[in-house]
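Handoff note, outgoing to incoming analyst
You'll be picking up this chain. Sequence as last confirmed:
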Amino acid sequence: MTNSKKIAIIGGGAAGFFAAISAKEHHPDAEVTIYEKSAKVLSKVKVSGGGRCNVTHACFDNKKLLSYYPRGANYLRKTFEQFNTRSTIEWFKKRGVELETLTDNCIFPKSNSSQTIIDCFLNEAQKLGVVQKLQTPINDIHLTSTDQFELISLNESFIVDRVIYTTGGQPKNNSLHWLQNFKHELIEPVPSLFTFNMPNEPVRDLMGIVVEETTTKIEGTKLEATGPLLITHWGMSGPAILKLSAFGARLLADKKYNFNVLINWLHTQKELEVRTNLQETLINHSEKKMGNLNPFGLSTRLWHFLLEKSNISVDSKWKELQGKKTNKLINTLVNDRYQVSGKTTFKEEFVTAGGVGLSDVDFNTMESRKVKGLFFAGEVLDVDGVTGGFNFQAAWSTGWVAGKNVI
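Most recent structure output, in case you need it:
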């Protein structure tokens, strides 16, 4: 088979550019064109990670890596065998992009700027001869009588030999309506990676406080997550909350985002351990005020808040901590309940659960099992990861494999 094929990449985001570059590198004679509906490419890369771009995560065990994906883990295994986090690091290193690993194992460009990643992609695409057609939305796709693809745009159409569809996560499946003609399964999208709104909870007055190690649970479910928790002016955020929102995306949508979250402010400490700590503090510091002596390393503002929530005055002396007061404080520390009423998503970094059904895609190649010559990559698939660079890693891996196998 000749390599002089026309390859269309639908979507100029992370997965789209990685797929285009991979296609052109593996098939240099092919004509590769990115079709992007807006006037800008890589807009999500630009704003990700607060403008720094968390390109991947320092998890080099593929089995463990898969555990960070609430949806798609079993399918991604085949893809990560070909291109994983080590591959990503090598890919950028080969192109002169220095990366650094932070203490939480998130990997960013050493420049601390997402523009470094964008410039790398744009330069690589230009060097390889990838064509970009901006402000060219593809509204429909048809198979021709010669088994090519006709891409329908606003006032024109394009005939191509292969399509890699990489339009990212969408609030609705409307843009994928054409796939129904090919009998592809479409999973209705719901938000993933969102923060919890708590309009009726006074804890919001502590906005800005970060507790580095917590355990969070959705009451009445088996959903549990650990990690840092950030108190915000609307409720709670941080990895311990975002992980819950990712793994519970569909369940919480069914609950219409009204539920209770339970917080263990002491991470994994159990009741007996906390009770022992409190008793030792009572014995050794009986005359000290509880508000002035915090045995758990919590911030003073949070400690005072939790004492008051337990109906304990900050001016109480430790020797006064007896009976029901002790039980109440222990429960507040390790099983604190907050009512969630709504969510907040980061519009620029919007992540969804849903999209193209995974059983319809061969993850060894990223080709559709329904339509030969049609490939998928990135978040348009029903694949999503928790926060920490995992969604970009899925984009790089699926894009690279799709580009490699497109011909």
